Amino acid sequence: MINSLDLLKKYGKPCDATNQVQITLPYPMRLAWNKEKRTNKVTVHKLIAKNFENVFKDILAHYGLPKIQELGIDLFGGTFNCRKMRGGTAMSKHAWSVAIDLHPEANALKTPFKDALFSKPEYNKLHEIFEKHGFINLGKVKNMDAMHWEIAN
Question: Does residue 107 contact residue 139 with C-beta atoms inside 8 Å?
Fold first, then answer.
């Protein structure tokens, strides 16, 4: 996991709009807080935009859209959010646009990883894809917050 000092050195100040870009996803995502609404664009840090693009291309290639929707991998919980970590004083990785949350309802912040949906075998390839492109999952690393992937360095 990358610490705040290294984040500042590599990715600049948190919440800095000049470091953010919008990428177009290869499939539509449903908003987790309003499943009727869709988006095909997300805001990410410009230095890892390709990482994010490649993650979603690989997810689509492996699972296909019907399986993505069946498994809830298309439930978008957010990328950029200028805020502190929940319950903490340090800035969230979302403030740098270097993190993404997927399917938050079934992979909640305080849920132990073994109880999170993303711990199930059908999501193993999802984890492999994110890891291949430089991301870690906090569920696997911290045994909580399985919805959250962030850049590892």
Answer: yes
